[in-house]
């Protein structure tokens, strides 16, 4: 149960980081 919670937290962190990166890339593409 604990390892499952840890995996979910890790997945959530990676997901939020990936969404931030994709937003930055889209913003850069709009500028350039």
Would you mind describing this structure in some detail?
94% of the residues lie in helices and 0% in strands. It has 32 residues and is an all-alpha fold. The protein is built from 1 helix and no strands. Keywords: Membrane, Transmembrane, Transmembrane helix. The chain crosses the membrane at residues 12-31.
User: How would a textbook summarize the main sheet?
Assistant: none
Shape: rod-shaped
Question: What percent of the residues sit in helical stretches (DSSP H or I)?
Answer: over 70%
Mean of pLDDT: 90
Catalogue the unreliable spans: none
Q: Which value, in Å, is the CA radius of gyration?
A: 14 Å
Estimated share of beta-strand residues = under 5%
Cα(first) to Cα(last) distance is 46 Å
Q: Give the H and E element order.
A: H
Number of strands: 0
Secondary structure layout plus pairing:
Elements: H1 2-31
Features of the shown structure:
32 residues; mainly alpha; 1 helix; rod-shaped
Brief summary:
The chain is mainly α. Helices cover 94% and strands 0% of the residues. It starts with a helix and ends with a helix.
């Amino acid at each position: 149960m604990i390892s499952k919670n840890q995996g979910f937290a890790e997945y959530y962190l990676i997901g939020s980081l990936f969404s931030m990166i994709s937003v930055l890339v889209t913003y850069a593409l709009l500028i350039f």
